[in-house]
Design a protein that fits this description.
alpha/beta
Length: 294
């Protein structure tokens, strides 16, 4: 039922209560969301000496990361970046990484009632580029679209596929190439989005709910928008390898269309950095992605 009265809310509150409740009390200090706190989070490194390694001896860092990865892969999209960032230190965690992990756990436990809600009339995003978004097709496809974003320093990519006002696929991972510009970082990040788009479209086709046209890909980088829509190379793209043109191939094969959105409307921003530059945007973007119902 695609009407406004049908809603499905998925949360893992019982999982929190059963498995993570005792660990959530290990860190009593409030989470620091200030600019200095975010800077400190992004400066976390692996254990640097024997004292730090001895401190971490006996602490189940890997097990706790595994529990939180399970949650972020299911319903807690809002913490995907933080857990993915801390997961890179599983082999040699530092005390700073441990305390940051407990901060993430504390936040997730306090908001354990939050889940993903599907249903209702599709929310149409505001785009800034030509041609405009095909609203009729967008509603007919139950709001199938994807946001893709990247941060350049450090290089991190994130995207979220939305369907029925909720996320059906998402990713937050480190970009494993040395991007020379923000545009190149966005293009490298965007490569992962068409893969999920194709997969979701194949599932919908199997369920006899074939999309009525190309799926909108929403980005906030004008350089990427121009590169995807125009064939050929420039001085800044002539070194690209074949995989970096994957988004352009999907565009030319009518798998997706590319649309620009305002940076302040890029909800995938919370999948690429610890905290948006405007703190209120974190809660705003979280509530849009997960369609949080209060």
């Amino acid at each position: 039922n695609r009407g406004p009265r049908f809603e499905l809310c998925s949360s893992l509150e019982q999982y929190f209560n059963k498995y993570l409740g005792k660990n959530s009390k290990l860190r009593a200090a409030p989470v620091d969301t200030s600019a200095d706190g975010v800077k400190k989070f992004m400066s976390i490194k692996a254990a640097a000496n024997e004292a730090e390694k001895n401190f971490m001896a006996g602490k189940d860092y890997m097990g706790l990361v595994g529990c939180l990865l399970f949650l972020t892969n299911r319903t807690r999209v809002d913490c995907a970046f933080h857990v993915a960032f801390l997961a890179q230190y599983m082999s040699n965690p530092s005390p700073d990484a441990w305390y940051a992990l407990l901060d993430v756990l504390s936040y997730m436990y306090k908001t354990r009632h939050i889940g993903i809600t599907f249903g209702g009339e599709p929310r149409v995003p505001e785009t800034q580029s030509d041609p405009p978004l095909n609203v009729r097709q967008f509603i007919a496809d139950n709001g199938l679209h994807v946001y893709s974003d990247a941060s350049w320093n450090p290089s991190h990519a994130g995207h979220v596929v939305m369907y029925g006002n909720g996320p059906v696929a998402h990713s937050s991972r480190k970009i494993k190439v040395s991007a020379q510009s923000s545009t190149e970082a966005e293009i490298c990040a965007g490569v992962a989005a068409p893969k999920d788009i194709k997969f979701i479209r194949q599932i919908l086709t199997f369920l006899k709910m074939t999309p009525n046209g190309p799926t909108p890909l929403l980005i906030d980088n004008e350089g990427m928008w121009f590169n995807v829509r125009n064939s050929g190379v420039t001085a800044r793209t002539r070194h690209f390898e074949s995989w970096q043109h994957f988004v352009r191939d999907a565009y030319e094969n009518l798998v997706l269309t590319v649309h620009l959105v305002d940076t302040h409307s890029m909800i995938a921003d919370i999948l690429t950095e610890a905290m948006p530059k405007v703190l209120d945007y974190y809660k705003k973007f979280r509530d849009i992605i997960m369609d949080v119902v209060y």
